[in-house]
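Postdoc handover notes: sequence design on the structure in folder B. Input tokens:
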């Protein structure tokens, strides 16, 4: 149905992938994985026809319809939600409502009845009540059931736009659906609905996602974009199968390389030994027989040398190139039974709407708290209250004097308006962490000897900010790179408490797995909002705060 032939794509002077040959069959469910910046979104845009490849072609058989869900919703124009979701159906539904209104009032003539039949037929052809049923089901599952179809789509929040776009994508029932991070902004109910919808659809789906459980449940094939070797490798199976198979492949490549190096070393030593023996014999005797034997030995050495050259030139296995994993280590101070945070009857209102009510809690010692809840339940608001970006409308929320807090927000608006470089912004973040402590004890730079810009660049390199990347303006960084910069500032600071809002959003899967390992060794306290089910399992939270109707339901593990 869909075939990519010899696809090549550059980003500036960087080769993303080359000589890509792929086929996507009817109904296939394919996951795409790779490091941040490896070209995952670019690949989907090439398939969708939004971007051109620098070389190669995308071929389709039977002119399949293709729809695309971008990672970030752009301005789609001055249209209402209904028109965006299903224009023909929405127009027919609106016209039908007008005729029904006429029938219910005063226009009962034959003309009106005939007009009703005509409009109703048009409504049925556009999908009729079945579309309405599917639409209501989708918007309800995505936790946006109250959005009015006549509302201007540009008045929606970013999360609401994404959900409406997702509902539209699934309503179209295209032959090929391309989804770039569709689980971002979805709560657990929405993710489970999306999983079921993708499994049930007959459409082929190509999905980029950082949600490993989602990939395991919906995909049967995995494409890995290898940014080191600029190639795309196809693995049969879901994400977990791909990880196991890739591990086996890397072990096999390394074993074959090592075996060949041993073979080359042995042959080299044999050749040298035989040559030395032949030369020594020839020099030490005048006996024609022995000198003849030494020449035969030398000829044997020459044959072995030719064999070695053939191995090196034709059969040589290059040293395997594996991507360098980000190196995380998070230093935190063990607080034992110390009260870090205390809330008493905290309430928060916005635009006369009650978001949180009568919250009372204590965070003690090195607690590990996961916060869950539906979209709009107030999770992000609670975190902003904790880090003092918002003030309670009523009640009292206090923290331990000198408490050093690291905060990772869900959205990074501060980056968009900043004119600072990566290096400058990193220093600013670390300085903020230091200023929180009353004794002004600085960060790990002092204990680890990290003082110069060179030391900072070495640290940032661990987070894949290579060479001149540190001089980029932070406003041009991807969302994943912005998150990594904040995580790097955590690593440079001894923090007592990490407060994080959807930390796995926008990170590549390898970085997430390294981050999980660092968090498992972190001795400070954690308060984390996440809908990533696999991440929450790895977090090993000792308490879950489930937000519903503005209150906390504490669940102890």
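Designed sequence:
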């Amino acid at each position: 149905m869909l075939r990519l032939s010899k696809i090549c794509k550059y980003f500036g002077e960087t080769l993303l992938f080359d000589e890509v040959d792929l086929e996507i069959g009817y109904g296939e469910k394919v996951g795409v994985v790779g490091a941040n910046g490896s070209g995952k979104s670019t690949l989907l845009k090439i398939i969708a026809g939004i971007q051109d490849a620098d070389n190669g072609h995308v071929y389709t058989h039977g002119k399949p319809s293709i729809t695309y869900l971008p990672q970030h919703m752009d301005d789609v124009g001055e249209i209402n939600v209904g028109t965006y979701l299903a224009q023909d159906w929405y127009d027919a539904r609106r016209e039908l409502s007008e005729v029904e209104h006429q029938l219910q009032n005063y226009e009962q003539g034959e003309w009106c009845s005939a007009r009703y039949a005509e409009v109703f037929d048009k409504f049925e052809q556009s999908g009729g009540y079945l579309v309405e049923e599917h639409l209501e089901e989708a918007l309800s599952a995505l936790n946006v059931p109250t959005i009015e179809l006549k509302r201007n789509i540009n008045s929606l929040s970013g999360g609401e736009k994404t959900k409406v776009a997702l509902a539209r994508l699934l309503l179209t029932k295209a032959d090929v659906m391309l989804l770039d991070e569709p689980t971002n902004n979805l709560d657990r109910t929405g993710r489970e609905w999306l999983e079921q919808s993708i499994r049930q659809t007959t459409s082929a789906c190509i999905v980029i996602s950082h949600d490993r459980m989602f990939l395991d449940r919906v995909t049967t094939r995995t494409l890995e974009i290898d940014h080191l070797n600029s190639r795309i490798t196809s693995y049969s199976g879901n994400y977990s199968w791909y990880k196991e198979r890739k591990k086996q492949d890397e072990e096999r490549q390394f074993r074959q390389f090592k075996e060949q190096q041993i073979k080359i070393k042995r042959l080299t030593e044999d050749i040298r030994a035989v040559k030395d023996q032949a030369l020594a014999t020839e020099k030490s005797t005048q006996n024609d027989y022995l000198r003849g034997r030494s020449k035969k030995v030398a000829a044997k050495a020459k044959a072995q040398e030719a064999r070695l050259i053939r191995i090196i030139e034709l059969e040589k296995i290059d040293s395997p190139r594996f991507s360098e994993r980000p190196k995380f280590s998070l230093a935190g101070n063990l607080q034992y039974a110390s009260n870090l945070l205390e809330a008493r009857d905290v309430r928060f209102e916005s635009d006369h709407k009650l978001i949180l009510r009568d919250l009372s809690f204590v965070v003690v010692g090195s607690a590990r708290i996961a916060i869950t809840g539906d979209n709009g339940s107030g999770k992000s608001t609670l975190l902003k209250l904790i880090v003092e970006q918002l003030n309670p409308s009523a009640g009292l929320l206090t923290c331990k004097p000198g408490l050093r807090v690291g905060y990772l927000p869900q959205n990074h608006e501060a980056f968009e308006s900043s004119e600072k470089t990566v290096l400058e912004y990193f220093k600013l973040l670390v300085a903020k962490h230091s200023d929180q402590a009353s004794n002004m004890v600085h960060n790990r730079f002092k204990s680890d000897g990290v003082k110069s810009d060179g030391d900072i660049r070495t640290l940032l390199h661990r987070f894949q900010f290579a060479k001149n990347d540190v001089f980029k303006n932070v406003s041009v960084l991807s969302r994943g790179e912005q998150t990594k910069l904040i995580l790097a500032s955590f690593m440079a600071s001894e923090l007592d408490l990490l407060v994080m809002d959807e930390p796995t959003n926008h990170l590549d899967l390898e970085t997430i797995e390294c981050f999980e390992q660092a968090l498992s060794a972190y001795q400070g306290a954690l308060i984390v909002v996440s809908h990533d089910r696999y991440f929450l399992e790895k977090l090993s939270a000792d308490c879950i705060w489930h937000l519903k109707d503005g209150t906390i339901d504490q669940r102890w593990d």
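Context for whoever picks this up: The longest helix spans residues 239-284. Don't rerun without checking with the PI first.
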